[in-house]
Here is the input.
Amino acid sequence: MLYHSTRNNQISVDSAQAVLSGLAPDGGLYVPAALPQIDVEACLQENTMAMAARIIGAMLPDIPNMETLVSRAYQGKFQTEELTPTVDTGKFTVLELFRGPTSAFKDVALCMLPQLLTAAKREKGMQEDILILTATSGDTGKAALAGFADVEGVKICVFYPQGGVSAVQRAQMVTQEGNNVAVCAVEGNFDDAQTGVKNIFASAVEGRLPAGNRLRLSTANSINIGRLAPQITYYFKAYADLLRRGQITMGDKVNFCVPTGNFGDILAGWLAKRLGLPVGKLVCASNANNVLTDFIETGTYDRRRPLHKTASPSMDILVSSNLERLLYFLSGDTELVANLMKQLNTDGFYTVPDSLKQAIAEEFWAGYCDDAKAKETIKNVFDNQHYLCDTHTATGWAVAEDYVNQTGDTRPMVVLSTASPYKFPAAVLSSLEEAPEMDEFDQMEYLSKSTGTVIPNNLSGLREKEERHTGVIAKDAMLDFVMAL
Ligand SMILES: *Cc1c(COP(=O)(O)O)cnc(C)c1O
Here is the structure.
C-alpha cells in the first residue's frame, strides 16, 4: 500500500518503508494514499489482540505476519489480556490506556513499534542495526526503553534533562534492564536535550558518525505511522465494550474525549472513524497550553506564545506535529499543507481556508482546562464517581463536561485515560487532601492507603531496583556519548 508525504504526493513509499523512514525526506509525514476498508462488525466481535492484528495489518499491509507481531508485542506485558479496559463510572466511560509495562498510554504504541520496525527491516533486507535516539521530558523515554529492550538489531539511547523529570520517572529510566539500552542525564533542560539529539542526527546526515555505515538512526517519536496505527485499536475496543454492556446498539455513534499533546492519540480516533467505526464528535482536550483550542475555534494556529509548565506535562506542547496529517486528510491538498507548514516555521502561525476550518469543526470540538480546574476535577470524580484519575485524564474529563454542558449532546462519552494516577502521585494526592511532606515514593503508598487503590507493580517495586544508568553529561558531550555506544 502506498504512503506519500503530506507535503508532496510524488514522494511515495510502501507501508513498510514508511515505518522504517519515520519522516518523509521533505519533512512531511507519511499518509496512506487511500485509507483501507475493514469489516467493522467482524472486528468488533474479536478479542483485542485479533482486533489489533486486523487493524494494524490493514494500515500496514506490507509488513507480514501481523498476528505474530501483535502477540509478541503485547502477550503478558499488560495487566489484562484485553490490554485497554474500560470502566463505566456511571457518568462517562473511562478508557484506560495505562495498563501497560510503564503505566503510560504510550506503551500501547511503543510495545508494537519495535516489532513493526524489525519486521519492516527484514522485509526490506536492511542489514544495518538501528539506533533509536530519543530526548524525553519523562514518559516517552521509559515507554520506548521498555519497548525496545533486548530487541535484536536495534539499540536505544535516551537522554533526559537532569532535574527535569520526576523522581518516579527518573527511577523508571535509570533502572532499565537490557543489553541494548543506554540512558543518560544531560545538564540542561528538555530543549537542550532535544537540540542535542537533533544535532546528532545532523552529524549522521553529514557522515560524521564513525558507526554511520553500521548504524541507522531513527526515533521513537509519534510522527511515525508505526506508532499511530496501533492506537486505532483501542477506539474499536471501547466501542465493543459499550456494545457488550448493552449501552449502545451497533451503529450508534459514540463521542470520545482525548487529552491531547502532539495530536497523535486523537488522530488515531479520527482514523478509526474513517475505517468505519461509528464515532460522533472527537473532543480535543488541552491544558493551559491551549493552542489547539484556539485553532479549532478560529482556524488560526499560532505558536507565538509562552509554553506553560503544567501538572499535565505530557500535554505541554506548542506544535502538535500530527495535526499536519489531519490538514492533509481533510483538504487532500499537499501544496496547501506544504505552504501552511512553511508559514508555521517562518512566521510562527498560519490560517486555514474557511472550508477546511468548517470540515474540522464538523468532526472535532475543543476545550481546555487549567491546573486548578484539573485538581478540582480529580477530587470531584473521586468523591462522586469513586474513580481515581491522573492530571491528564482529569483534563479530558473536565473538557468532556464542558462539551456536554455547552452542546447538550447526550450520546455516550468515552474519556481516554492516558496515565496512571501513580505516575503523578504528588499532584493527585494534593488534589484530594492535605498530605504530609514526603518523597514521591512515600506519596504513592500514602495515595494507595488513602484511596484504597492499588499501585501498579512496575511502580511499586521501583525504589528497590538497582540503578544502572547514573551518568550525567554536559550538553555538548552527547555526540561523544553516542559514538562510544
Ligand atoms: C503523550 C501523552 C499525551 C498526549 O498524547 P498525543 O498523542 O501526543 O496527543 C497525553 N497524556 C499522556 C499521559 C501522555 O503521555
Q: What stands out?
A: Residues 384 and 456 are 23 Å apart (CA to CA). The pocket of pyridoxal-5'-phosphate is lined by residues 104-106, 139, 222, 259-265, 314-315, 392, 418-419 (CB under 6 Å). The two ends are 36 Å apart (CA to CA). The first helix runs from residue 15 to 21.
